[in-house]
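Need C-alpha cells for this chain, all 311 residues.
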Amino acid sequence: MESAFWQLGLALFMEQTMNIAFVGDVHGRVFHCIAGLLSLQGRMGKTLDLVIQVGDFGYPFPERMDAPSKRYRELDATEGDVSRLFAAESPWAESFHLARRKLGGPILFIRGNHEDFDWLRSLEVEAKLGIAKTDPYDLFRYVPDGAVLSFEGFRIAFMGGVEERTGDAGIEPQSYDHLLALDAGYVDLLITHQGPFGSSAGFRGDIHGSRLISELLSRLQPRFHVFGHAHQQTGPQALAHTTYLGLDALVASAKWEPDAKGLKLGCFGVLDTESGDLRPIMDPWLAGFPTPFDFEEWISGRWPGRMNQRD
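Here are the C-alpha cells for all 311 residues:
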C-alpha cells in the first residue's frame, strides 16, 4: 500500500518517527479544535505529522441535530460551530486557509454516536485512500469504519460507533468483522470511538466500555489504542499487548459544569511512534484557553498581518 502521507499531501522527512496528535470528542467545536492543535503544535516546537479525532465530530446542518445536541446547543452555541465552518466567507475563509497551511495536513475523524449519519454517508470516499474530504479548506477528512491506513508502514485501523446503540450510532457489524479478521499484530494503532469494557465508569460507579472493542483488541493486539466517548481521561494503561489512552472531551459540558473555562485537561493526546511514548496533554495552558472563544480574533492576534502569506 502506498504511504497515506503522500496521498494526504503531508510532508514526512523521516523514515520511521511520527508525532501523532489525538483529539477527544469535539461536539461541533471545530474552532476550539483547530486553535488548540495549533497551540499544541507551537508548544511542541514541531509540526504534527498526523492528527486524528475520535468521533462525535458534529453537525454541519444544525436543523438535523439529534435531540441531545440541540439541547446542549441551547446552553452553548459553539455546539453548532461546524455549520459556521462550512458556511464561512471572507475574512473567515482566509483564517481557515491560514490554519490549514499551519497544520501539517487535514485532521482525520471517525464516526461517533452523535453525528449527522446521512451526511457522512453522502460524502465521496476517495477510491485510492478510502477517506473523504468534508470542507472547502480540507481541514477535516472523514475515515469510514473498517479502514486501515498505512503511514510509512505504520498501520492504523478505525472503528466508530458504540456498542449499546443499534442502527447508525452502533458498531457496524460488517466493518467490525473485517477488522476482526486481520492478523494479530498487523495493526499498530487502533482508533475507536468507544473504549474497551472497564476503561471508564459512570456517575454512579457503573462500569462503562464495550466488550466488542475488548474482543477486537484481543484479536488485533495493536501496540496502541486511543478512544473517546466517555468524556473521561484514562490511561495510558497497559492491557495485555496494548497501551491504551482514553481522551476527555474538548470542553466541559455547559449543563454539568457551567462555570468551567478553557479546554479540558486530557482532551489531546500525543504519540511518538519511535519511542512508543503515548501520553495525554495535561498542561495548564489548556485551562487558560480563551472563554468565550473567538477564532477570528485568536488567529489574527497570533499571526497579525500574515493572512495572505503562504508560509
